[in-house]
Each structure stands twice: as structure tokens, then as C-alpha cells.
Amino acid sequence: MQSIESIDGAADVVRQDEPHPTTTSRVVLPRNTIPDLPPFIGWLNPIWQGFFTLLHGIARPGDQPLFKPTNVTEVVRYLACYSLGILLMSGIAIHWEYLMTTVQVLPPALQLLAWIFWIYVTVIAEFVLLCGGVRVMQTTIVHEATHGKLCKDKETGRLIAEWITILLGTQPFHLYKPEHLNHHDGSAFATLLDADARMFVDLLGFTPGQPLDFYWRQLFKAILIPKVAIYWNLARLRQNLFEMPPAGLRWRLAAAWSLLLLRGAAVIGSSMMVGNLLPVALYGLLWALPVWLLYPLSMTLQACSEHTWLARRKPGEGAKLFLHRRLLNRFPFTPWTGIENVVPFLLKVFTRDLFIRGFILCGSLPLHGRHHTTPAESVELWPLERYRAADEYAKGEVTVPTYTSLLAAMESVFLALSALPPLNTGHKPVDHPGLQVLAIGM
User: Fold this and answer.
1) pLDDT digits (tens, 9 = 90+) for 379-424
2) Does residue 277 contact residue 207 with C-beta atoms inside 8 Å?
3) Which whole number is the average pLDDT over 127-133?
4) Residue 190 pLDDT
5) 381 is a domain residue
6) pTM
7) pLDDT at res. 195
8) What pLDDT is recorded for position 435?
9) How far apart are CA 391 and CA 206, in angstroms?
10) What gap in Å lies between CA 115 and CA 60, rounded to an integer?
11) What's the average model confidence in pLDDT over 84-107?
12) What is the pairing mode between strands 402-403 and 329-330?
């Protein structure tokens, strides 16, 4: 296999004494275009602006939160969104016959609107609240615990992360942590030494040196064919149920098996008690679909716009600038263009923008590039990143390329891959690519 260094020149570790790179660009963030409400309803402005701060993942420069977010409020907010998804999908499944009967007695024009409404609620519940809820707990709560920033007591943070990964069936924390910290290693980041990059190349098939349209076809295939989902789920089953953890964590294996058996007993027992398959349907809607199928899809779409994988270092380029060039900040949300366009603006906000934010760019992922360059230094600061980043943009201090279109961010990743030489024919993918899907999307 061609050496890692010859592919991307990433063997140099960023030196802390190296001069800070110059600002790469000044972009007008869509978030900065959102105006305040008219004076007669100005009392609602904190809620209005707070909503867009959460939607865009970044505040307006100078804005202050109505309530100062903390590690506790962030965790509670994510759990509340996930719980809302459970309530919505449970209600729809349990009362499905009643809902259909109600729709059928409406006039034809209203029937169409009712169908659109319930399809919208179902999509938001499944993709944004349930799948997005699981993703955000992994990409934010477990992620902050990995960096020791979830709680002041790191052991408490570790226990919380362990239990979250057991309950959700995602990668065990004791395996995720070393893989993710390796992802932050300057000599491994975005190279074939990085598990994320190996999955991107070997499992998804985004090999370097191909025409641009090749990568779009690969992305389309990844959406239609659940290859990642199959491998990802095999890896999760193996890691959670069959791999013996370190001696101090062997309770984890017992907990994972107990939870699996309890879930199975609850589904079968409930089905027998009520005499139908409603519990099975609920299990599929609340767990199997969002975690087994949608989670890997969300992970794939996010990875395609996350970093310029395998990028090569330019002659004379400093290590810090090279690092920043491989990072991306993403704010692909609708800007405000005037009161005359308020209806299409709101339609895009509550459809496209909400879907992208909740399903693809979950939690702190819009600012993921910043995380690699300016990580939160403490438990108190990481919940305030969206406010700190806004001031940095206002001062022109941001050195990470910023995209206001998700497709443009993906294209930048694909163009960087296309410009690379192909891997040597001696390159051998990992023996079982799915088992290497460890930290991607973090």
C-alpha cells in the first residue's frame, strides 16, 4: 500500500508556537440575516432569535442567551427532543386507525392537507427527533465525555457516556474514546491512519483520483444501498454483545445482554397480551428504523461534508494552515431576504433546514471544524460554543473554510479527493470494513 505520508503529507504535527493562519474568508452567515421581530411583538424576540440560534448552530454576534446554557441544560434539551419523538411516534402508531378515519371524513382538499401534515410529523419524528436524538447524544454528549468536558468529575462523565452507549447500542465508550482521540492526532487526522477516513475510502468507496461525478454516484449508491447500515450494525452487535470489555467494565457486557433480552421479552410479551403486532411495529418505529437504518445514513451524509479527507499538503504550507484547510464549518440554512418572502422562508426553515439540522448536522456539528482548532477548554464553555463562535466570525478570526450550502461542502470534499493520485493497486481495504466504523461523524 502506498505510504500514508506520500498520500497526504500529514505526518507533521501542528506546533503550538506556529503563527496563526490568516483568515481564509469572510462569509455572510445566514444566521446574521435574521431580523428582530416588529416592536408590537418584540417581547417574543428572545424566543424567535433563540430558535434560529439553535437551528443554525450559531448565534448572531453580540447576542446573549435568554438562559445561560450549561452541560445539564444541554443534556436535558437533547433528551427532551428524543422523548418528544418517542411520544409522537407512539401516538401515531397507537391511534393510527382513528387518525385515518378522521382524515377520510374530511373534504377532499382537506384530506390532502391532512396527509401532508401527518407525513411531515412522521418524518420529523423519525428522522429529526428519534434518529437525530440518538446521533446528538453520540456526537455531543458522548463526544464531550471523551474530551473530559461533559462533567467536572470525569468519572461521572465516563459513566454517563457508558450507559448512553449501552442503552442506544452504539459503539462502546471504552472503544470509541481511543479511536476518536486518534482522529484528533495531528499525524493521523484525515489520513488512512484515521478510522473515519478508512471507512470513507474502503467501505463507502470514495477512493482518491476519480472524476467528480464518480463521487456523486457513490453517494447516491450509499443512500440507496444500506451497505454501511449492514456493516455498522454487525460491528455494534459484535462490540456490545460479544467482545469482552476490560476487567473493570465487564458489567457492561452483562448490562447489554440484559437490555437486549428485556427488550425482546417486552415486545413479545406485549404482542401476546394485546393479541396483535402493534408492539412489534412500535419497536420498529421507535428503535429499529431510526437506529439501525437511519443512523448510518445520517453518519454517511455528514461524513461527506465533514473534512477534505486525504488532502495533500501544499509546498511551503504551515502545519496549522494545512490542518485548517482540511476542516469545514457548515451553515446550510435559509437566509432572510425580506418580509415579502416570509412564506417561502418559513417553508424552507421548517422543512429543508430543520431536516438538515436535525438529521445530518446534529448537535455541534455545524461548528465541527472549529472544534479541531478552538476546542472548549472547560465544562462551562462547551455549551456556549455557538455564542463564542459568532463573535469570532464578527472579528474575522475564523480560519476554517465555511460553507452555506451542504452540497457545496460535499463538492469541496469530492474535488479534494478527485485531485489526488489514485491509490496503488497494492492498497488493501481493511479485512472487514464495517468493523472499523468506529468514530465517524464525531
Assistant:
1) 888 899 999 999 989 988 888 899 999 999 999 999 999 999 887 6
2) no
3) 96
4) 87
5) yes
6) 0.88
7) 86
8) 34
9) 36
10) 37
11) 89
12) parallel
What's the domain count of the chain?
Answer: 1
The answer to the question of residue 336 being in a domain is yes
* 265 located within any domain: yes
Q: Report the 3 state secondary structure along the chain.
A: CCCHHHHHCCCCCCCCCCCCCCCCCCCCCHHHHCCCCCHHHHHHHHHHHHHHHHHHCCCCCCCCCCCCCCHHHHHHHHHHHHHHHHHHHHHHHHCHHHHHHHHHCCCHHHHHHHHHHHHHHHHHHHHHHHHHHHHHHHHHHHHHHHCCCCCCCHHHHHHHHHHHHHHHCCCCHHHHHHHHHHHCCCCCCCCCCCHHHHHHHHHCCCCCCCCHHHHHHHHHHHHHCCHHHHHHHHHHHHHHHHCCCCHHHHHHHHHHHHHHHHHHHHHHHHHHHHCCCHHHHHHHHHHHHHHHHHHHHHHHHHHCCCECCCCCCCCCCCHHHHHHHCECEECCCCCCCCHHHHHHHHHHHHHHHHHHHHHHCCCCHHHHHHHHHCCCCCCCCHHHHHHHHHHHHHCCCCCCCEECCHHHHHHHHHHHHHCCCCCCCCCCCCCCHHHHCCCCCC
Q: Which residues pair with 403 in a beta bridge?
A: 330
* Amino acid at residue number 181: L
Chain-centroid distance, C-alpha 380: 22
- Give the pLDDT band of residue 426 (cuts 50, 70, 90): low
Residue 442 lies in a domain: no
Look up the domain containing 366 and give its range: 4-436
With the CA atoms of 229, 190, 385 and 318 taken in that order, what torsion angle do they form, in degrees rounded to the nearest 10? -170
* C-alpha angle 417-422-423 in degrees, rounded to nearest 5: 110
Q: What is the mean pLDDT of the chain?
A: 85
Going by C-alpha positions, the residue among 79, 63, 82, 83 that lies closest to residue 71 is 79
Task: Report the pLDDT averaged over residues 228-246.
Answer: 90
Per-residue pLDDT band at 272 (split at 50, 70, 90): confident
Q: Which of 350, 351, 352, 357 is nearest to 298 (CA)?
A: 357
Chain position carrying cell 401516538:
91
What is the tens place of the pLDDT at every residue in 320-372? 888 888 999 999 999 999 999 999 999 999 999 999 999 999 999 999 998 88
Single out the residue of 168, 252, 237, 148 nearest to residue 437, CA to CA. Answer: 237
